[in-house]
Write a structure and sequence with these properties.
globular; about 180 residues; two-stranded antiparallel ribbon; 11 strands; alpha/beta; about 25% helix; 7-stranded mixed beta sheet
Length: about 180
Amino acid sequence: MAKRVAAVAVNPVNGFGLFQYLEAFFENGIGYEVYAVAPAKEIKTNSGITLVADDVIANLKGKEDQFDALVFACGDAVPVFQQHASEPYNVDLMEVIKIFGEKGKMMIGHCAGAMMFDFVGITAGRKLAVHPLAKAAIRNGVVTDEKSEIDGNFYTAQDENSVWTMMPHLIEALKA
């Protein structure tokens, strides 16, 4: 039976990255729900397209056991994350990432996904692919220059243009 995935989407989210995951999950019969990292379910893509997520990040808290994997969908909100880190939705995001990681769930992300995983302290010794601009922020994991890395339960890609390099392995693991 296929695993279930919680996808967290920042606001604004990189639509190309998010939609690669969602389309692959849909096409392969993998259940997923999208949670907006925002106070409301309505968010936008980097290009301004309005999306309505299934729910907000605050309502994912406490439901971690209903999912086998977490996708962090990066976007334009991440470069300014530090300025908004104390917003309740970002505090919830970091708590959810930490809980999923500590429970040994599959951790999936591109661009700054590995950086967010690293910030909560769940990447110790893991090989990670991360956007070149985020490489210096990694303290616990091991950054590589590969387009994507799969290390245990971590599936990371440098950016949205590299997600496809890990997708066949990710889908195989989610269908197992």
